[in-house]
Specification:
This protein has 201 residues and is α/β, with parallel strands linked by helices. The protein contains nine helices and eight strands. The longest helix has 16 residues. It is globular and about 55 Å long.
Length: 201
């Protein structure tokens, strides 16, 4: 491999949070975004038989619904949200937010999954990524993977199946060029947690 590989990274923020929460519950450590991005480059290098320096995440995007500032402050999550945003900024991740909506007393994300898919597909057509990495467990993104593959992009699906809440549909897994399950990785080798997690408290 003589030409650098361009990687586009798209993060489903709600799903990312589920992985992080499961890790903190099971082991007392959470995901470290910077380390995770390095791990992705390493996986791409191994998959395409090249060195990490030839695998660059040229664009990365994060999507999530969030509370308005006054509600977040009431729930005491405003500061943690800002700290995570600092991490996104430090790692050159572009964040996309929509306000959460309340319908019949239930707080829901509305339109984030569609926005995620549209942005990933549109940017893939313009940037011509060699590899698109999707961090998501949404079964509806099966068609997104098919569309990305039609653009000649290889699609890596990165998931963390630690519980039923973070389980991923079989069709979604099978559609991807490569599926990486962090839950399976940790089961096989707990030491691998240091590659992508914060330090143990």
């Amino acid at each position: 491999m003589t030409q650098p590989l361009s990687i586009g990274l798209f993060i489903d923020g709600g799903y990312y949070a589920k992985i992080d929460e499961a890790l903190r519950h099971d082991s007392g450590v959470g995901l470290d975004l910077g380390k995770l991005m390095c791990y992705i480059r390493k996986c791409v290098a191994e998959q395409y038989d090249t060195i990490e320096e030839m695998c660059q995440i040229t664009e990365s995007h994060y999507f999530r619904g969030r509370y308005r500032a006054n509600v977040a402050e009431q729930k005491r999550i405003l500061y943690p949200e800002r700290r995570f945003e600092d991490s996104l900024i430090e790692n050159d991740v572009i964040f996309h937010y929509k306000h959460l909506r309340e319908i019949d007393g239930n707080i829901i994300e509305k339109g984030i999954d569609v926005w995620y898919a549209l942005e990933a597909y549109e940017l893939a057509t313009v940037r011509h990524f060699d590899v698109v990495v999707l961090i998501t467990g949404d079964a509806d993104h099966e068609m997104l993977i098919r569309k990305l593959k039609a653009l000649k992009s290889n699609v890596i699906l990165l998931t963390g199946e630690f519980s039923a809440q973070s389980a991923v549909s079989r069709l979604l897994r099978e559609e991807a060029t490569l599926h990486i399950d962090l839950g399976e990785l940790f089961t096989e080798c707990r030491e691998s947690m240091d590659e992508i997690c914060t330090e143990r408290r």
